[in-house]
Amino acid sequence: MAKKSAIVVGIAAAAVAVSIAYGAIANPGAEEESLNSGIWDIRISGPEFQDLPTIGSEVGILGKGTYEIGFVPMGDSPELLNLRIMSEDGYQIFEQEFYLEKSLVDTGISKYYTWEYIGEKFFTVSERDNYEIVINREGNLNGSVSISIEKLDRSI
After folding, report:
1. CATH number for the domain whose boundaries are 35-151
2. Which one, of 74, 75, 51, lies nearest residue 146 by Cα?
3. What are the per-10-residue average pLDDT scores of the chain (156 residues)?
4. For the chain, domain boundaries
5. CB 3.0 to 4.6 Å from 117: which of 32, 51, 71, 112, for a disulfide?
6. Which of 42, 39, 66, 38 lies closest to 135, judged by CA?
7. How confident is the model at residue 4, as a pLDDT?
8. Three-state secondary-structure class, residue 22
9. How far apart, in whole angstroms, are the C-alpha atoms of residue 30 and residue 149?
């Protein structure tokens, strides 16, 4: 009986060791992404934003590095977004106009639409400073959109 228990424990230990080794090979040196990896985000939704074509917000302190702008658009999101990011003293580090593109996805079984903002979504900060963002919206001001800024661990 003890011999069978030792065999079962040995097999379980070997399975755990193989799983750990496989994980290290499949994902070498990778770090888990933090749930709070976002630097800044805003959800533009609701009656308080409906008649505001321009929205300003403090981003906060950004360190040197590369950042990515993310969007969560919907079918009724603004057609155009112009984003400007500038330092506290007014030095502009990024400006880009994004347009909402609608794509039909046909799986053969069903059809649906997806939406994506098209434009350059990466920018680099060379000086640590306090930054702010100005968002100009055009078309569908009643629609909602979420915008975020995340720091990348690597340069592009």
Report:
1. 2.60.120
2. 74
3. 52 46 41 53 89 91 94 90 93 95 93 94 93 93 92 72
4. 1-30, 35-151
5. 71
6. 42
7. 55
8. helix
9. 22
